Amino acid sequence: MAPRRTKVYEGKAKILYEGPEPGTLIQYFKDDATAFNAQKKDVIEGKGVLNNRLSEFFMSGLNAIGVPTHFIRRLNMREQLIRSVEMIPLEVVVRNYAAGSISKRLGIEEGTALPRPIVEFYYKDDALGDPMVSEEHIIAFGWASQQDLDDMVALGLRVNDFMSGVMMGVGIRLVDFKIEIGRIWENDYQRLVVADEISPDSCRLWDIETGRKLDKDVFRRDLGNLADAYTEVARRLGVLPRNANNVTKPTLIN
Ligand SMILES: Nc1ncnc2c1ncn2[C@@H]1O[C@H](COP(=O)(O)OP(=O)(O)OP(=O)(O)O)[C@@H](O)[C@H]1O
Ligand SMILES: [Mg+2]
Question: Are residues 46 and 96 in the same domain?
């Protein structure tokens, strides 16, 4: 029997284990869904399998067009090998259409096209409810440098271009999304890479024809079966075989 792996971190949606070589981690996708800063919780059977596949799909696509990510390769149904990075404690949100907090805060009707993609930063702190912060706050408190900020905006916009195009190709509107970014050190030189996950947990995805929501809002707003929505996204992207009807009862092969 292989020795039990060392758990590095357990979050709400994923577990990180030590990887097989220095500088790597194994990211395990759980079925747990949380919303509203974990006040709403449930287990959605199959969600972890879908997000593992979808994050692989988006991250490997980004790697292929030269947008650096932490993704190395998928290991099995629920796990992927990633590069260990020093996380920047910010969430980078890119919005193409108004929805969620921007609609509430600024009184813009959900679905309104924004004049251009808008990049926002949120400070990752569950106790504070991940508050929105300005570039001034970020620099003053030393969460990132001005150079990092410029790089983060550029990364966010490149991810937006890629993701918008891919989703549009399968009849889905990328309303907004969130990424997390980390630093990789190469000697004294640092490079920023897209880390964490890119999945329907971290995007707003609306069917272009019908407006049907295909993202975590299905869970937040009790709009139906979350796994069905994610399965639809995966099917359209060709990430799952078209006749896969058993994704909610996966066999985990380690
Ligand atoms: N490549 C990476 N290297 C190191 N840490 C990473 C990497 N990618 C993601 N992480 C971190 O791993 C954790 C993933 O777990 P999960 O998303 O479940 O956390 P969470 O419950 O959302 O909590 P948090 O508030 O820490 O994000 C997150 O803290 C995320 O920032
Ligand atoms: Mg998270």
Answer: no
